[in-house]
Amino acid sequence: MVAAVRVHKVGGPEVLTYEDIDVPPPAQGQIRVKQHAIGVNFVDTYFRSGLYPAPGGLPFVGGNEAAGEVVEVGSGVSEFKRGDRVAYVQGPGCYTAERNVPADRVVKLPANIGYEQAAGMMLKGMTVEYLVRRTFKVEKGMNVLMHAAAGGVGLILCQWANYLGANVIGTVGSKEKAELARANGCHHTILYREENFVARVKEITGGKLCDVVYDGIGKDTFPTSLDCIRPLGMFVSFGSASGPIAAFDINLLQFKGSLFATRPTLNTYAAKREDLLSITAELFRVVGSGAVKIPINQKYPLRDAAKAHRDLEGRATTGSLILLP
Ligand SMILES: NC(=O)c1ccc[n+]([C@@H]2O[C@H](COP(=O)([O-])OP(=O)(O)OC[C@H]3O[C@@H](n4cnc5c(N)ncnc54)[C@H](OP(=O)(O)O)[C@@H]3O)[C@@H](O)[C@H]2O)c1
Fold this sequence. Notes:
Layout: E1 2-7, E2 16-21, E3 30-40, H1 42-49, E4 60-61, E5 65-73, E6 85-89, E7 98-102, E8 106-108, H2 115-119, H3 122-135, E9 143-146, H4 152-163, E10 167-172, H5 175-183, E11 188-191, H6 197-204, E12 210-215, E13 229-237, H7 251-255, E14 260-262, H8 266-269, H9 273-288, E15 296-301, H10 305-313, E16 320-324
Helix pairs in contact: 3-4, 3-9
The structure holds NADP nicotinamide-adenine-dinucleotide phosphate.
The site of NADP nicotinamide-adenine-dinucleotide phosphate has 30 residues, from helix 1, helix 3, helix 4 and helix 10.
């Protein structure tokens, strides 16, 4: 038996139940990972609340990313052996001291990346890689707007876009978050709960507006975000921290300046193993070189997963959150 946090019925953070579970030996194609650190992401709350149905039904173990060491290898697996240091995004199923994972979703960790760092960046950092290099190629001199710039994805994206030479504008919920975003590569911050963020973006860009807006907020910032984008620019809706965007008339994109809009997910971008490997290689490169740092600003024992969810949904966190088994 191993310690885990399971969801027996969907609902608020209180449904996260700390208990012992059985983990069978790894099946064909799987490896068993002793987890050293587990990431907490907004998507974990979507599964817990029922916004996203868990693929295997109830009950399910929460969590979508972790890092640890291989302790057992199933038949047919040749790429990994006992003792390998690994990390992965695969969920739900990560809020546990040990689990079996399909080997083809796992990557080996370079020696200069620690377990906690890996758990704080696999899902969020891979997401930023595809957002700034694949969904829309951020280039030197571009104006980029990132909502929730002090969040987990936010602090990584600000640093990465800055590293690529962009002018980075970030919205944040407080003065403290503004300071933190600025310390992580964001050139201009906007307190979007107090200020009109469209007016501020116009002012900051001298009326040129942004080449791309990365919006993980959803309901509360739509359709206003579209007014921050230059003609033929790109709207990237990659999450819904405030609730999903309601159905809208596609003609809106015409009236806002022939905009492009996309709603991407890491699942698609990293679906092929070759893409998973190239995304993580680039992530490990920028983190290994020091160009992008992974701020892990909250750590909780695994049994306190409910508190981690409350803090994340209550906008009380910055950077990455991890659970320690
Ligand atoms: N599509 C993908 O592949 C993908 C992958 C990873 C993450 N995501 C998305 O990226 C977004 C950020 O994820 P994260 O894990 O890094 O979370 P996070 O940004 O650390 O936390 C969410 C932040 O959103 C802001 N926010 C605004 N309105 C909110 C509301 N009503 N309730 C809660 N928070 C609100 C808060 O920042 P302020 O106080 O500054 O407003 C809060 O700190 C989420 O939407 C997530 O689903 C998408």
